[in-house]
Amino acid sequence: MPFWKWIDLPPLWLLLFIALARVQAVRLPVGVIDTPVTDLLAGLLIGGGLLLMAVAVVQMRQNRTTFMPHQHARHLVTNGVFSRSRNPIYLGDAMVLLGLIVHWSAWPSLVLVPLFMWVITDRFILEEEAWLRDDFGPQWDEWAARTRRWL
């Protein structure tokens, strides 16, 4: 695998977007809101995103398939959290990003969430979906028809 594939990983993209949001929050604060409601919302998003990622990884490990990008899956996991989202790990990443933006009151950085989702879709999801379509055919088609890409 080429070196750039080793560094082209969703967690590194997530860290980049988190860093951008943090820089905006510190250097250009706008409308800071620090209430128990925003703290609760931020905590639910961050905790829920981390939990969703963990559950998805466990499910993939139980099904003896990879959760690493740029690798073909051995099995198509369609139950559990994968019955609600075809990409629960990436969805969890977006939830963590959104939760940190809320926590830091980095409101202008809200634009980073759909941008992050676009980058992840372009860099990872489209390739993974093409592989799944090729590897699992009708089983993939049925799952893709009933399960949304994100939520």
From TrEMBL:
GO terms for cellular component: endomembrane system. The keyword Lyase does not apply. It comes from the Bacteria. InterPro entries: Phopholipid_MeTrfase. GO terms for molecular function: methyltransferase activity. The chain crosses the membrane at residues 41-58, 94-120. GO terms for biological process: methylation. This is Protein-S-isoprenylcysteine O-methyltransferase Ste14.
